[in-house]
Amino acid sequence: MEITLETVVFYFLAAFIAVFSILTVTTNRIVRAATYLLFVLFGTAGFYFLLGYTFLGSVQIMVYAGGVVVLYVFSIFLTSGEGAKFQKLKKSRFWAALGTTLAGGIIVLFVLLKHKFLAPTDIEYAETGFKEIGTLMLSSDKYGYLLPFEAVSILLLACIIGGLLIARKR
To answer: More exposed terminus of the chain, fewer Cβ within 10 Å: N or C?
Structure first.
């Protein structure tokens, strides 16, 4: 197997996302968890850029890393403040989480060992103009992007309304 720069970048991004995913769920500080989540989302955008999906990578950064994490941090500051800590996990929940994690790891290993993933050899990249992207963004047909972007806008609206309702109850 030949080691290329793409392979090295892929493994770096995979390790980067794995480390920050673990840090996201194990930290005691909620603001640090949001920051680690931001790094995970940036790593996911790195995968998109590595695959040549520059539009999808930029949407990942703008919508998720930009919008969702900002709203998440905004709602954290409205509800609990920076010094708030997570509650300790009960032993039963810890063992349930550990069992679920092990089951998920076994499933991933099974899929990785059972299937052969072949690298594509003859990929042709086609440049798409802004007019075509705009038409696809606003179309509601099979390959249109109107429905996913509307779903994301509803998600952002729900985050804002939820944050305001929680802050209002205080």
So the answer is: N
Of 70, 72, 9, 65, the C-alpha closest to 39 is 65
Please determine, looking at this structure, whether the domain spanning 5-169 carries the CATH number 1.20.120.1200.
yes
The secondary structure of 36-101 as a DSSP string is HHHHHHHHHHHHHHHHT-HHHHHHIIIIIIIIIHHHHHHHHHHHT-TT-BPPPPPHHHHHHHHHHH
pLDDT in tens, 52-104: 888 888 888 888 777 777 777 776 677 665 555 556 768 888 899 889 989 99
Burial tier of 38 (Cβ tally within 10 Å: 0-12, 13-18, 19+): buried
Could you tell me how many residues make up the chain? 170
Q: What is the model's pLDDT at position 56?
A: 83
Q: How many CB atoms lie within 10 A of CB 42?
A: 19
Residue where the block lists tokens 């007019």? 131
Q: What is the pTM of this model?
A: 0.55
Tokens of 38: 């931001």
Structure tokens at 88: 């300790």
